[in-house]
Design brief:
Oligomer: single chain
Radius of gyration: 36 Å
Distance between the termini: 86 Å
CATH topology of one domain: Acid-sensing ion channels like fold
Helix content: 25-40%
Number of helices: 15
């Protein structure tokens, strides 16, 4: 009986408990609804307040949709913020006192690629070489689609030819020699010479020279102790860029050349459009350096590039222009950046193996027939791999896949016979036609593909940045130099001794100038007296460059990044 009486009581208790739970849920739901209603009347969320204020069902649905869309957009925005945060590096800057600054490699490029002395003394030989070796306008223009109806068009074609000429010929003789333009050189109060400079050629400046403080015995003294004048590199350079002032008959005209236009008009009327470059060279109406510069306006002087030891001097690196007639003080400080090699954001750990070296053409590569052995020829030099080298690799691969040849506008690792602008025989119509096809393909890839892909290459190159890299921040100040007080000392101390030691002889690299004697410093000495120099030319063709490190009191900053920027 007791058991029978307890069962209904237990069932009744269960029902009461269930009713209490349902009542609690209703109260909770009512509380949430009341709170949400209160929030809806006071909130500034788009659409929610209007939904509660509206009495019409359609309006409520409309504002409900607006609210949902706004909340969805907010959620997407928050997602991208979080994703961007997860990809953002966590940077910690460690200031370490007394980190050694290393003196960088310093590359000098003359803003005038071709020596003005060579142009003056060897004008006939250059003209004869092009006439005999290339037969340029009698073959190249007729085989191609270039227009020669106006001077602007012909100058454009002539600039194209100069690129072909550079890619096909040994141009070292036409450009500057380091033993001729280095008037005085000192590094840490120690005399240096052209032995510390190595040639690196490129299309824009032809002969560039890289200074490395490596003296006899192979010892390198790169440590920078202070910012004193004696702790850096000091150079007095002769740029050989104002000979037109010495020889007015070959000077530039500043008015329209009526004779030349009239002569062109007659020859065009007669159908002769094949010898424009020959007449251009013969009359010396313009400097070849202007032809190479194209429509770029650049000052006279030297481009100076500071870059990490043993790396290639890419023209896109930080550089300054040291003007003629100036003293330029280049100050730099080194910043060492270390990056964590993480799987999601890798960097390249440097080793001593060959994979961390790039082998670029340093100067005229010649033909692969000359070097049949497995070892590379001496004019190919190995450089430490840097981030920009990845961009070069991808760009060269793009040209090869499209045209089966390489571009000459950036460093290359091949013989010049594999360049798109290389022409084996400038007198053979079939060879000229083949060259024109490669040029057309090259220019099309450059204009329509490379310019669009270069940003992707630059972004992808972050993963190929070395985990440890030295960056050099450069600042330069300049002032007019030499002063009237210093010019006599400069002439007596450097110019006249260099004149007396200068060897007047044939150029040594190739056969183009085999019968030409070139002595640039002789050209600024008076022909009447060997002890008289033109002050104006000495001032306008010289510059004094000093490069030294800046001592950082708090030490150098090492940025430890989780991702490369």
């Amino acid at each position: 009986m007791a058991t029978a009486s307890q069962a209904p009581r237990t069932k009744q208790e269960q029902q009461q408990q269930q009713q209490r739970r349902e009542q609690e849920r209703r109260n909770t739901l009512r509380f949430i609804i009341n709170e949400f209603n209160d929030y809806g009347h006071r909130t500034t969320v788009h659409g929610l307040g209007h939904m509660y204020q509206s009495t019409d069902t359609c309006r409520k649905l409309f504002w409900l949709c607006i609210t949902l869309v706004s909340c969805g957009a907010c959620a997407v925005h928050i997602y991208f913020i979080v994703a961007n945060y997860m990809e953002t590096p966590v940077n910690s800057v460690i200031l370490q006192g007394r980190i050694r600054q290393e003196f960088p490699d310093v590359t000098f490029c003359n803003m005038y690629p071709i020596s003005e002395s060579v142009q003056y003394h060897a004008a006939k030989e250059i003209h004869g070489h092009i006439s005999n070796r290339w037969k340029y306008f009698s073959g190249f223009i007729r085989a191609g689609n270039f227009s020669a109806n106006d001077k602007v068009g012909r100058l454009k074609v002539a600039r194209t030819f100069m690129q072909i000429f550079w890619a096909s010929e040994d141009t070292r003789d036409l450009a500057h020699d380091d033993d001729l333009f280095i008037v005085q050189c000192s590094y840490k109060n120690r005399q240096c010479s052209n032995k510390q400079f190595k040639m690196v050629q490129n299309l824009r400046y032809w002969n560039c020279y890289t200074f490395a403080p490596k003296f006899d015995g192979g010892h390198e003294d790169r440590q920078v102790y202070s910012s004193n004048e004696d702790e850096g590199l000091s150079l007095i350079l002769y740029t050989n860029s104002h000979l037109r002032n010495v020889h007015p008959k070959n000077g530039l005209t500043t008015i329209r050349d009526v004779y030349y236009d009239y002569e062109d008009e007659i020859l065009n009327h007669l159908g002769d459009q094949s010898n424009f470059l020959e007449r251009y060279l013969e009359n010396y109406n313009l400097s070849l350096n202007q032809l190479l510069a194209g429509d770029k306006l650049e000052p006279d002087g030297m481009r100076v590039i500071l870059h990490e030891k043993d790396t290639y001097p890419h023209m896109d690196m930080n550089s300054v222009i040291v003007g003629n007639g100036d003293f330029s003080n280049i100050n730099f400080y080194m910043e060492r950046k270390l990056s964590k090699n993480r799987p999601e954001h890798p960097c390249r750990v440097e080793t001593s193996g060959t994979e961390d070296r790039m082998e670029y053409m340093a100067y005229y590569p010649g033909s692969n027939i000359r070097y049949p052995g497995p070892r590379p020829p001496p004019n190919f030099k190995k450089f430490k791999r840097a981030r920009l080298d990845y961009i070069v690799d991808k760009s060269q691969a793009l040209f090869w896949s499209a045209c089966h040849c390489y571009t000459h506008i950036m460093p290359f690792q091949c013989f010049n016979t594999e360049l798109c602008y290389h022409c084996r025989d400038g007198t053979d119509p079939a060879e000229i036609e083949r060259t024109l096809r490669h040029i057309w393909c090259h220019d099309r890839v450059y204009e329509h593909r490379l310019k669009h892909k270069i940003f992707d290459y630059f972004r992808d190159s972050q993963n190929f940045q070395p985990c440890s890299v030295n960056n050099y921040n450069v600042k330069m100040g300049s002032s007019a130099w030499p002063s009237q007080r210093d010019i006599q000392f400069l002439i007596n101390q450097y110019v006249l001794p260099a004149f007396q030691k200068e060897t007047v002889g044939a150029r040594s690299y190739n056969h183009i100038l085999k019968n030409t004697s070139v002595a640039p410093i002789h050209d600024i000495i008076s022909q009447e007296s060997s002890t008289t120099a033109a002050e104006f030319l000495v001032a306008r063709t010289s510059n004094w460059t000093a490069a030294r490190g800046v001592t950082v009191r708090r030490g150098l900053a090492e940025s430890v990044n989780s991702v490369l920027l």
